[in-house]
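Need DUF3558 domain-containing protein's 3D structure for a figure. Predict it.
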Amino acid sequence: MRSRRAGAVLVAAVAGLVLSACGSATEGEATGGGAPSEQASSAGAQAPSSAAADGPGGQAPRVSDPVDVAALDRDPCAALSNSQTQERNLEQGESEPMSDGSPTCIYRYSDGSGSRVRFVAVQEFANGLDDVYARSDSLAVFEPTEVEGHPAVVTQTHQDNRGDGFCDLQVGLTDEYVVSLMAQVTESSDDYPQGCAVAEALAGDMIHNLRGGA
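Structure prediction for DUF3558 domain-containing protein:
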């Protein structure tokens, strides 16, 4: 078994990541949890911040401190700043719309491992994370979590592939706007198999960046 040093993305501070709330991914699947690439989203406004039931099929927790998503509407690669990608040893993001028109941005590792994380502004989720919760009974993995105070859910459509470096993380930026982070960390990366730690670290970076802190 080969030893692993700090990974390309996780080399920055990763303490405090919730590693237990992870999901899997496989390129090309639609939202609700599935793949490190394709899903759908919805541009959204802000809604009141009251707690909500979070059982299967129930309403998702409210976003108590929504961020301004206007930059993502203009450019999905506004998710991360140049300084953040450099710090995380990622290449600059590449915009690549999905077949349904959902804006996406792919950030590839600069270590040559083929690992990457796709950010998708999920147009299908017009009701934010409520639409993810409504699908919970049909998902192989549905694990609510939180990133920087924002409600989030780790999902997987057919099976749990987290042990293979995949993770799908749905993050509520507002009550009506979800970004899906689809991590695919390969065995040749020092971050393997920590796809969920990578997704949560980059989700936190995105939130800080959209708040003007990066």
